[in-house]
Amino acid sequence: MKVNPLRKYLREWGLPHFFCPGCGCGQILSLFLRAADEIKLDMNKLVAIGGVGCTARIPVYIKAEALHGVHGRTLSWATGIKLHNPDLNVVIFAGDGDIAAIGGNHLIHAARRNLDVNIIVNNNMNYAMTGGQVAPTTPLCLYTTTTPRGNMERTFDLCKLAETAGATFVSRWTTNHPRQIVKTIKDGMDHRGLTFIEIVSQCPTHFGRYALGSSRAEDILKWIKERTVTKKKAEEMSEKELEGKIVVGDFVKKNLPTLEDKYVELEKKAQGEE
Amino acid sequence: MINKKILSGTHFMLGNHAIVEGAIVAGCNYFAGYPITPASEIAERMSKRLPEVGGKFLQTEDELGSIFSLTGASLCGAKPMTATASAGFNYMQEGLGYAYAVEAPLVIVNVQRCRGENYATHADVMQMRWGASGDYEAICLAPSSVQELFDYTIEAFNLAEKYRNPVIITSEMILSHMRERIVIPDPNEITIVNRKRPTVPPEEFLPFRADKTGVPPMPAFGEGYKTLYSLNPHSENGRIDWDPDVFEKLYERIIGKIRNNVDDICKYETYYVDDANILIIAYGSECRPAFDAVIEARKKGYKVGLLKLITIWPVPEKLVDTLSKKVEKIIVMEINVGKYFFEIERIGKKNCEVVPLTKNRGTIHTTEEVLNKIEGESK
């Protein structure tokens, strides 16, 4: 039997994974491992972090140092890890609830500090693990299990949030863009500073069923594709035309000192070397 | 400029600063905190001292940020600490619960305060035992002088490392904002305990398998052991596993490693207990008026003794049981509505009468108040 060459990066005892058929989490895991393999990432120096939720299970399957199991605190763990041992590579797999709702405060401050971590957000537009409730990322008017009369709240633009808070690498793609995702993850892992990669993905079990009336992955992917516009095209569109659209592309890439860099300077000062 | 790691010698020092110096002596190399009165001087002094001695200091965006960053640092091999006060300690319960579950050594200082006001209290004595969700055993130390804040901060780190458990040091404004003479010993007079390390290569290592002590060896992130730490129930190799046998066994071990070592963990002092018919039990700053009152009462001919508890969690049950058989009455002193009293009553009431002496007025008892109680209970 032919074995997937990326399987060597997975914990054998962790399999089979628990993602639903058609879920974007499996794709994101696979695309991350493809990127890691192509850049020959040292798995001994990788810390993979997940909070709580479907996406948070991704790091559980990766054969690396891993942290899992508390909602929204992924960046706080990462802060302690990177400050104490800046040589480690940290990648966070976060759901939209994890990073933008309960963990929002930690996100904006990690971005402000330009902590050298990589955040891969799987935005499936709802709380999937708990049964398909509304998320800060759920599009307006759509039905979820806690918006039986339609979502009345505006949708959070996570990339704009990350950029405004100070992230130095910000990109968004959808699961319709596997090649772009691999390239962006490779660039992001190479970037020193806070990397924020949002991937809009399909949740057939909950978002698909309640919001779109279909539990077929391809229907949701098609729905996402119809709403996707490139960054270049978006620049020519009015605010009204952009309502409900998913703008994809690379938004920010700049080099600024990281928190870890600044701490080295501080230590020198404290120890009288300057 | 202070830049020595151990400031050996005699000092006149603030309680909160003594905690910092004790921590640095113990090997603390990571501190994250969020300002809160009356604990802020700990963060302030840490921000100055830690970078001088090669440690990391960060003022985080909130208490959750502090406690979870401590866990991250701990799993990388750091000896981390945070300091907060009651309201901030509420926020930390989530991270504390996680640290118990993944067995991350770390130290938390909780300078208890009254409902947003900074007055001294022991109102949160039960929260320090039961505050986080899930199953665990807490270790909590309640020193009663500036010297003890220094000494038992070192002890707190040693216990955290030895048992792979969070350790809480509790104080309140009276101790934390008091200046007293303290002696910091020479480095060779101080015992430092570090966590057990793996003795086998990664491919043979089971991160949650322990010997009969119940405490598994602990690698640091980046050493190649590729450990999965999850709040979810996990088998010895770290696999998330909902098998009820795995769950039950895991928490038997996590609880057992503390319960089976109470004699090693519990620190206390006794005064005049041999011939006593009344025993006072006190902890924290209440030990001060308790001790003075016992001395005064003895002068007046009352046969009173004192059990000064330094470790309040776990409760030294055998000790309390033994002493309760020797006396007619136990008086439990605390500055709250009477909470730890119930623990002592649970253990002692089958052997003697147990009565509370409470004061919920933001300060400790006066010697006279304790003396009056002794006289009243002697009639």
Summarize the structure.
The complex is a heterodimer of chains A (274) and B (379). Chain A is of the alpha/beta class.
The number of strands of chain A is 8
Largest sheet of chain B: 7 strands, mixed
Count of runs of 4 or more consecutive helical residues of chain A: 11
Rg of chain A, rounded, reads 19 Å
Tell me roughly what share of residues is in helical segments of chain B.
25-40%
Spatial order of the strands in the main sheet of chain B?
3-2-4-5-7-6-13
Output the structural class of chain B.
alpha/beta
Global morphology of chain B: globular
Summing up helix and strand content along with how strands pair, one would put the structural category of chain A as: alpha/beta
Poorly predicted runs of 5 or more residues of chain B: none
In whole angstroms, how far apart are the ends of chain B? 59 Å
- Biggest sheet of chain A: strands side by side, in what order? 2-1-3-4-6-5-8-7
| Mean pLDDT reading of chain A | 97
Question: What does it look like?
Answer:
The complex is a heterodimer of chains A (274) and B (379). Chain A contains eleven helices and eight strands. Chain A has 274 residues and is α/β, with parallel strands linked by helices. The relative contact order of chain A is 0.14. Chain B is α/β, with parallel strands linked by helices. In chain B, α1 runs parallel beside α6 (146-163), α3 runs parallel beside α4 and α10 packs across α13 (367-378). The longest helix of chain B has 18 residues, at 146-163. Chain B is globular, with a radius of gyration of 21 Å. The N and C termini of chain B lie far apart (59 Å). The A-B interface holds A 11, 13-14, 43-45, 47, 60, 63-70, 73, 76-81, 83-85, 87-88, 105-106, 108-109, 263, 266-267, 269-272 and B 1, 3, 29-30, 32, 48, 51-52, 54, 56, 58, 60-62, 64-78, 80, 94-95, 98, 101, 220-232, 237, 239-240. β2 of chain A pairs parallel with β9 (228-230) of chain B.
